[in-house]
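Here is one chain, start to finish.
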Amino acid sequence: MIFIKLFQKLSQFSGKVPLEHWVSRIAVNTCLNQIAAEKVRPELRQADLSEEEQAVVENLAASSDELSPDRRFASRQLVEHLLDLLKPAERLVIDLLYLQGRSVEEIRKITGWSTSLIKVRAFRARQKMKNQLITITAKENL
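Its structure:
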């Protein structure tokens, strides 16, 4: 990736600094940008998860057809409980996006909200649901 950037920016090299300095600056900036990108969306490896966390991931990855009826019912109850904790606008955006499978553009037409407002509400709702799920699982493990 660094060599590609070097060739793309070759026209910007003025010759005022040694070539080695210019190349190293591009390499350092590329690495810093990559680190920053990984902080925003960290990569999680299954090997890094505990056995409990791996079981949760496997259950989430299973389709509803693969779940036993009692697990399907428990999953549905948990989702309903998490949705009940949201504000009405957040619940609406989660319902439209994930349960009904609508696009952001369709939600914009239905609600009249801006695209950025829809994305922000969906993000905040997901964060609330995630935090509540963590709280619930922590209480169960006590």
